[in-house]
Fold this sequence. Notes:
Order of helices and strands: EHEHEHEHHEHEHEHEHHEHEHHH
CATH class of the largest domain: Alpha Beta
Oligomer: single chain
Structural class: alpha/beta
Shape: elongated
Strand content: 5-15%
Helix content: 40-55%
Strand order of the largest sheet: 1-2-3-4-5-6-7-8
CATH superfamily of the largest domain: Aldolase class I
CATH architecture of the largest domain: Alpha-Beta Barrel
Bound molecules: 3-methyl-2-oxobutanoic acid, zinc ion
Amino acid sequence: MYFCGNRGYGDFFNMGEYSRLGISTERRKISIFDTTLRDGEQSPGVSFNKKIKTCIALKLYDLGVDTIEAGFPAVSSDEFNTIKGINNIIDNVCSLSRCNINDINKVIDSNSNVIHLFIATSDIHMKYKLKMGKNHVYDKIIESIDYASNHGLKIIFSPEDATRTDMNFLREVISNIGNKVETVNIPDTVGIMNPISMYYFIKKIKEFTKNTISIHCHNDFGLATANTLSGLAAGANEAQVTVNGIGERSGNAALEEVVSSVYGFLNSYTGIKMEKLYEISKYISSVSGIIPQKNKAIIGENAFAHEAGIHVQGIINNSKTYEAINPELFNIKRKIIIGKHSGKSSIKYILEKNGIYKTDEEIKNILNIIKNESSKKVIDEDFLLKVSKNE
Ligand code: KIV
Ligand code: ZN
C-alpha cells in the first residue's frame, strides 16, 4: 500500500511498482504557495474585483495552502486596498514587490507580513527590460532585502528568469542574500526547462544555499507540473502554483496536479484538503472565465469519464483497472459515457442504475442502435433510456 502522508490519502492512489523509480521517497512536508490571486490574475483578460479576490483568498485558506500570494500592491490603489482587506482577515498572506523602496512600502502599508521580492537576473531581461548591469541589479537586491528585513518582513526572493540566468551571477546573488531571506524562489519564467534539466538545476542551487527553495514553473511547453515535481524531487521544499494552472501565457503549474503528484510520486504530503480541490477549481473557472480543457488532469470534465467498452467493463469490476487516482478523493463522480465505443457492460450498467433490467439479446439490440446513432447525434443517458423503452 502507498502511504500518502498525514491525511491517509494513500488508498486513493493506484500507482505501480515503478512510479517512484529514481525518486527519493524520504517522506516530508511540501509547502504550497498559491499565486492564483497574483500570477493567476495576470492571465490575459482576467481581473478579479475585491469581493471575488477576498472570496478566493478565503477558499484558499480553507483549502489549506501554506501561503497565499494576494497580489501586487503597487499595481493600483484598488489592488492595494483589496490586499489590505485580505490581510486584515487572513494571516498567511504574501504580497509581490519589485526591488524598490516604493513597492516595499506599499507592501508594508498593506499590512502584509510576507514580501515576495523579485528582480530579473538573466542577461536578456537586464539588458532589454531593466536596462541595468549586473552590479546595479545586485545592489538593488541587497538594498531591498535590507530594507524589507529592517521593517520586519519575512522575505521570499525571486531572481526572475532564473533558469536563463548566468550560473555564476545566480550563485553570487543567492549565496550572498544570506539569512535575511527565508525562501529563495526559482522561477522558470518562460517555461524553458524540462524535468531532467530542472532536477539538475535545483541540485546545483542547493550547493550554494541553505535557504528553503521554492519553485515556480510556467507551462509554455506543457511541462510546468512535471518540472515542479522534478524540482521538488531534487530537494525544493515548496511549490508555487495556481488553481487550474491559470497564469501568464500558458499558465503556471496547476495546484491540483502538483499536490496529487506530491502524494503519488514523492511519498510526501501537503496541508491541502484534497476533497475541496474540485470545488475551488469550479469556482476559479467561473470567476476567471477560463474553462479548463475537457481532458485536463484531475479537474477536467473527462478526467474520470469512461466510454470504451473494454475500459468500462474493467472499471465496473474494479475501478483501479483504469483509474490512477480514485475520483472520490476530490469529491468527483466517475462518469460512464455512452457512445460509439461503448460495449454491452456500459448499457447494462446505466440501465440497471436506473432500475431497468434487460436480457443479453435486448442489450445487444440497444447497443446497435446507439452505435448507429452516435455518428449523427450526441448520445446521453436520456437517449439511452428512450431507446431502451422500445426494446
Ligand atoms: O514567472 C515569474 O518569474 C514570476 C516572478 C514574479 C516570480 O511570476
Ligand atoms: Zn510567474
